[in-house]
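Problem statement: downstream parser choked on a complex file, so we are re-checking the raw output for the adenosine-5-diphosphoribose run. The parser issue turned out to be on our end (a line-ending mismatch), but while we're here, posting the original submission so the record is complete.
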Amino acid sequence: MYENITLIQGDITAQDTQAIVNAANSSLMGGGGVDGAIHRVGGPAILAECKQIVARQGRLPTGQAVITTAGNMKARYVIHTVGPVWHGGDRDEDELLRNAYRNSLQVALDNNISTVSFPSISTGAYRFPIERAARIALQTVNEFLQQHPLEEVRFVLFSASDLECYRSIVHHLSRRDV
Ligand code: APR
């Protein structure tokens, strides 16, 4: 349980996994946080492909995922997903966050990608409580990996406190799930 999941503190734009996941918004036109960093470091090729996607299929609904080039980054692909904005928990936020992780991994699988880095989706500007989000993220990824053993799923936490939060939840969940 949880053996293919790694937790690090760092910058997702610097990761050498085949794909990195972007915490985007439905417009796919960029933003701040992870979204801003990915477009800044990856360069204009990413936005160009995002514009083609939106022209073809419209805005990206919350919980869905699409794939583009990673431009100038070490990774080859960016998987863009839209996490839910936190409104207190009674607007299906938990399920939408589960979908964002699950659909991102499904896109990786569909593209023969076996190593993926995730940020802590929705826990910044979208204000999703970190402990609740971490539990959903780790359980959803672990369940997916039981069916589809990707080589590595890496959570790249931006702060030491977020890393500590994810670590304590993995410790709790892996003891409970034995
Ligand atoms: N690498 C890894 N993690 C990062 C980085 C980075 N370079 N930059 C920020 N983070 C962390 C934040 O500290 C937070 O813990 O990623 C987590 C998610 O924060 P946001 O990027 O704000 O994403 P989210 O909460 O999902 O909000 C998405 O913000 O940037 C806009 O366009 C984006 O509208 C969308 C919204």
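For whoever reads this later: The two ends are 8 Å apart (CA to CA).
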